[in-house]
Amino acid sequence: MKHPVRHGLVAALVAVSAGCSDAPVDDPFAAPLPAQCPATTREQSLVITRLVLLRQTTPGVSPGFDLDGRVSGADDTLSCRRRDLTSPEGVTGIDNQFSLLVPALDTATSGALDAAIQAAINNGQLMVAMSVEGLDDRLNDPCVNLVFRRVQGMPFVGSDSRIDPGQTFDTLRDEPISRVAARLRDGVIEAGPFDLGLPIAVLDARFVIPLKNARVRIRWRPDDTFEGLIGGAIPADHMIRVSEGLTIGGDLMSLVRRLILSITDMDPDAEGNCRSFSAAVAFDGRSAFVNP
Predict the structure, then answer these.
(1) Which of 1, 60, 190, 233 has the most CB atoms within 10 Å of its CB?
(2) Nearest CA among 189, 196, 210 for reference residue 148
(3) How many CA atoms lie within 13 A of 287 on its CB side?
(4) 159 phi and psi, to 5 degrees?
C-alpha cells in the first residue's frame, strides 16, 4: 500500500526538479530593446513640477549616472583626469562634474537658483512633459516608449507651490520631441543612452541644454507621482556659446569659460582633450494630460 503523504511529496519533488531543468526560460527583460516599442491604447503622462541641478551633498558625493562605464581617478586620461563621484547609496563611477559649478551659479543668482527655476515652472515658462506610451503594465513592462515634450498652458499651482495633478497641456509644436524605448521594472522606468534637449529657464535666461548619451531613471509611485534623475554629457562649446548670450560682464564671462573647461570629462578628441562635461538633474512630476 502506497503512503499518500509520501507519494505526494515524491510527486512534488519530481515537479520541482523538472522545473529546474536546463531548458531555457524566456525573460522578456533580457531581450535587447527595439528602436520603438509596440503601440498600445494605454499611456500615462506627467508634467515636471520640480527641477533641480544636482550639487554634491558632501565633497565627492552626488546622485547621477555612470555614463561611461568607468570608475575614473586622477590618473584616467580618458576622463581628462577628472575624478568620478560616488552616489549617496555608495555606487562608484558617478559622472556629474557639473555639480562643481552649481555652487557658482548659486552665488551668481544670490542663492536664488532653485527658486528661479521653480518660479519658471509654476508660471508656465518652463514646462516639460513626459509620456509613457505602449504601456501594458504599470509595474513591469519590458518595452515602453518614453516621450519628452515641451508643453504650454497656464498651470494651476497648489498650496504646496507645485503644479496640481490632472491638468491638460498643449504640445509646443515648434519644439523638438525626444523619444526612446525604455523598460519599466518594479515601478521604475529606465532609458538610454539617447540624445535629449533639456530646456532651462533661470531669471531672464532661456536656453536648451543638449544632453548627449542621456540616461533617465523615473520612479512611478502608486499615487501617480514621479521622481527621477536625468544625466548626460553637455558639449562645452555649446555651454560657452550660451553663456556668451547671457547678461554678464566680460570678466565674469572669462571666468565662466575657464570653469566650464575645467570640468570637461567626456568625449576626448585625438589629442586627449575632453569636449564635454557630465551633468545630472533631479525632478519630481505629477500626472497630466498632453494634447499632441
Answers:
(1) 233
(2) 196
(3) 9
(4) -65, -15
φ, ψ (nearest 5 deg) of residue 85: -105, 180
The Cα–Cα gap between 16 and 10 comes to 10
Q: At what angle do helices 236-244 and 250-261 cross, to 10 degrees?
A: 170
For 11, counting Cβ atoms within 10 Å of its Cβ (0-12 exposed, 13-18 middle, 19+ buried), the class is exposed
Which phi and psi (to 5°) does residue 290 adopt?
Answer: -120, 120
Closest by Cα among 243, 229, 230, 244 to 101: 243
65's grid cell = 549616472
**What cell does 274 get?**
575632453
pLDDT at 21 (0 to 100)? 46
**CA 131 – CA 163 distance, rounded (Å):** 17
Rounded Cα distance between 173 and 198, Å, is: 16
Cα–Cα distance list, 147 to 134, 153, 189 (Å): 11, 19, 12
Regions in the chain scoring below 70 on pLDDT = 1-25, 245-253
Per-residue pLDDT tens digits for 232-243:
999 999 988 887
Cell of 50: 520640480
Q: Which helix (H) or strand (E) holds 252?
A: helix 250-261
- Closest by Cα among 120, 92, 89, 114 to 102: 114
What span, in angstroms and rounded, lies between the C-alpha atoms of 86 and 266? 17
Structural contact between residues 184 and 132, judged by C-beta atoms closer than 8 angstroms: yes
Q: Which pLDDT score is estimated for 292? A: 87
Q: Which three cell numbers stand for residue 219?
A: 520612479
Q: Please report, as a single letter, which amino acid is at residue 102.
A: V
